[in-house]
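> @MW can you paste both from yesterday?
MW: sure, first one:
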Amino acid sequence: MSSASHHPSANQTAAGGAKQQLASKLASCSAYSLAEAPPPFLASASMAAALFSFRAAALAALLVAVMAACGARGQLQPSNASADSQERSLLSYSGGWIPAKATWYGAPTGAGPDDNGGACGFKHTNQYPFSSMTSCGNEPIFKDGKGCGSCYQIRCVKSNHPACSGVPQTVVITDGLNDKLRHAGIIDMQFRRVPCNFPGLTINFVVQHGSNPMYLAVLVEFEDKDGDVVQVDIMQHNSGYWEPMHESWGSIWRIDPNRPLKGPYSLRITNESGKQLVAKNIIPDNYIPNTNYRSYVQY
């Protein structure tokens, strides 16, 4: 065997370096919790961070968290186009497992504070389909709110602690090892992006408090596949054209055109892959704020 065969290629070296750089960024401010209920499970977030849906078979109440201050988003150094491209590749479905650090915080069965849905706007995260507890996430996966709803699989690494199986499907709290992990300090973990799947659910729209004839804000949730939304457009009654809505924060989109709006309203959502779905006349003209309007569409 030649000596060259013992060394990684330039592409392998670059990929490894990108993965370490991303892990370093993620270590600036992320925390994830796994739910006690069956999948899907979700890690919700404080207002300083993000809300993400994580899924793996029968994972349970073990917090896996990338450690550091949750306000560290502003401390991240700007990256060039090449580095951004590498990050997107690593956070794609084929990006593989990304290393990170984890620890436990908060109450073992806590569902998180009542903070208006965290930085993504998702509320009632302790209920189906999320059945989750609380965590925080940082910029590489928060994406200024565009990452809200993305799904990740998580596993802790057995080489760091004997209570870790290293296999996502078998990290199940049935034998009391959850207490050992909660007292284990910082442990190694890995995560990777996976397609979202909300069995039996279609995309849901929640009209936000404060909406009125001159202003409409809507939360979008439960999107299969990519799980996130990068654009929402609205068509008013008999207008015949789409108007762009603007991201208010997280997964909440608004339109405030300084003129009266007329329903019923159709909504068109675009996910990260560029696929669009239309929920026709989904929100009535006489909508009620804080009300769910369940569509018939799903990715």
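MW: second:
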Amino acid sequence: MACTFGLAVGLHHFISLSNPVFLRQSIDNVRRRHVAVAAKPQRVSGLEQKLPNLPLLNTLAWPRSRSLSLKAQVDEEESVVAPDTGISNQSSNDRALEAALAPVESESSWLPAFPHVLTAAMANFMFGYHIGVMNGPLESIARELKFEGDTIMEGFVVSIFIVGAFLGSVIGGVLADKLGRRSTFQLDAIPLVLGAALSASAQSVNLMILGRFLVGIGIGVNTGLVPMYISEVAPTKFRGALGSMCQIGTCIGIISALLIGLPAETDPHWWRTMLWLATIPGVALMVGMQFAAESPRWLGQMGRWDEAENVIKNLWGEGEVEVAMEELRAASSNEGEDEDITWSELIQAPYFKVAAIGSALFALQQFAGINGVLYFSSLTFRDAGITNSVAASAAVGLANLIGAVVALSLMDNQGRRKLLMGSYAGMAFSMALLVAALEMPGNSDFAHILSVGGTLFYVFTFALGAGPVTALIIPELCTTRLRSKTMAVSLCTHWVFNFGIGLFFLEAVQRFGLPAVYSTFGVTSLLAIAFANGFIIETKGRSLEEIEMLMNPEK
């Protein structure tokens, strides 16, 4: 707990040092003033004559970083107009400009959108639950379904889940565009419920495999759909915090599977109850989405502007409607309403850049070693004298959950980019601790403490940024028309590397040794820091339409 608190405070302090106060108080909502300024052009007519090249009234979604450059231009123009008069430059035009640049307190709140986000995050709960549900009772399942001792079949029962998730990622991108986000959630609940029911009632290994495959398809759809939906319905001010519910939902699902699975140690048939229970959140998701809001971005893309306006009014507040609708219409006019969206657009400029960034982020996430660390966590704890596997899993799950909760509080405060870089820095440091512990001679208590601490610190820092930010920032960077397909491509990359690393991880450990493999994970974390620094823009406080303009300035 001390490590957790220390990292949170340290990271907060580090990031705060590089957060300019003026920038935070600048034109955070200058676009909100656009309508008011346009309605009263006489307020700035003099300024426009003086500064004809400044796009004061022609830019709808003005990047917030423009405040400093605009201030510099204003000062420069004033010095040219009256360089030696000594008269104060605080003219009426200046005051009008300052009024336009003054920060406007948003009326939006996170509460109206929270029930909708919570309903969507139920899909992440199922993801975490299905990850953890097979860990404990796999031996009992193999014994009852008569494939005990067949390691290939045991591995296939587990890995078929990933194959289904890969296919689900592709299917989800198509369904989300054609049917809408809400209907896709409801349709996706069918394989989740059916797959869990088939697995729970399986009398043969083939039926178990089919059930796991169907569940994998459902999870594959949801892993892209949930962050995309949350990013589109959450108010800009709270999009990062609400987006963190994805990681929190997954953590709670894993811990729930662990706790619900406790009777499996004494009851060899308890695994059926665990799998039957997995149908409940699937049904709840299907019913809950009937009352959830549709994405206003998707509604705008379909030309259903009245519905989009009502959703924004209900979820973001009355004061957000005018600006948000202007932004949606501007983005739609650039992209074209209801045009056919093809996969080939992802390999064309400028969209290829975002698809490549998304795929690279997920590849780096997997190569940074999260699955390897979790795989060896039980052995690490056992060597340290913690022989209770439940206690070890609970400690790892708790570290994961605490990290996700801390990320929720920092996401909209410090920003995605810095949180991502700080997370990978912590993961690299954790790998250094683990390698140092492995290289220590003998079987010292200090080495065990170092290895356990390094493992927990790694999981905590992963949940702080590499986990939640990766899933959240990709839909933020995407254009609305291609958001679902970009997420699909990125997540396909995720599942391919997830499967590949799981397949070859033990072989690499046997051939090169665990210290060498962990060192590779640490180097990958450092590369991820460089990648985030060079290619990721900060998205906090910006609407999705503003981010789209920054990523595609030529449009």
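> thanks! Residues 1-105 have pLDDT under 50 and may be disordered.
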